[in-house]
Amino acid sequence: MTSTPLAAVTGAEGFIGSHLVEALVAAGHRVRAMAQYNSFSSYGWLETLSEEVLAEVEIVLGDVRDPGSVRGFAEGADCVYHLAALIAIPYSYRAPHSYVDTNVTGTLNVLEAVRALDTPRLVHTSTSETYGTAQTVPITEDHPIHTQSPYAASKAGGDRLADSYHASFGTPVVTLRPFNTFGPRQSMRAVIPTVIGQLAAGERVITLGDLRPTRDFTYVEDTARAFLAVGTADAGQVVGRTFNAGTGGEISVGDLVALIGKVTGTEVEVREDAERVRPAASEVMRLVADATRLRETTGWAPAHDLERGLARTAEFFQDPANLARYKTGIYNV
């Protein structure tokens, strides 16, 4: 008789992390969830999960920037899912040292813990931003890395550390590189919550940055399933490899706004705000995924198209209790 596997998730209190916790519990895992230490004893979005889910979750306040905190957290885990990161691109222009501390040194601490504890698997989280503007499309895992923001550079640094630990020490790490994930619980720093949140708050003139860039949007439940897929697949198929997770479709920000208007039945006018526009050389103009490797290796495929995912996201933000958690009237950096 085998014991129930224990999955340890850093960044579990966040947008994707909280959905991954739900997916892991639904798949029969026990979960140890790290939420960043804070004096309010806040567990972030974990506090909104059902009692049935939380009955299978041990919540630990910690910090990936501290080696001892990470080592204790990873003890006994069958798989560590490392999602903790600073992710807002605009804030990375203001506080790049913080991004290196969390995204590079934090990843180093997780790798060291997994190495010391002989953890059977580590799933490391990358980002499509490490590719920069697409040089060829769709973007495969062999596309050149071209970091156009301090955020992207810090994530690429973590990726290279993960690769080096596998090569140097045989650390059983697999890297998942999600493209733009969206859905309930996402912060207002992302474009879809920015638009839907402003509409839900009664605005009809939406303030945004550049409308030209295109993105490949994946619904959050599908991204969570991608993490589970690489975390549970046969080691020989995934360890030491990087996998894109995306739909293979792309849409411009301008067309996205129009689609959101259609889904919500709202007439939308857009006003450009110079504060929200990235520096010209830093803007990633086109991202679209080739997820063939993930699909052929694990069988993963997205279950939601963009319009269906937007409808579910709109339902979340239109709930007054959910909307009250957000500041829709400011630029959330």
TrEMBL record:
It comes from the Bacteria. It holds the Pfam family GDP_Man_Dehyd. InterPro entries: Arna-like_SDR_e, NAD(P)-bd_dom, NAD(P)-bd_dom_sf. Residues 9-312 form the NAD(P)-binding domain. CDD domains: Arna_like_SDR_e (cd05257). PANTHER family: DTDP-D-GLUCOSE 4,6-DEHYDRATASE-RELATED (PTHR43000). Signal peptide: none annotated. This is SDR family NAD(P)-dependent oxidoreductase. Coiled coil: none annotated.
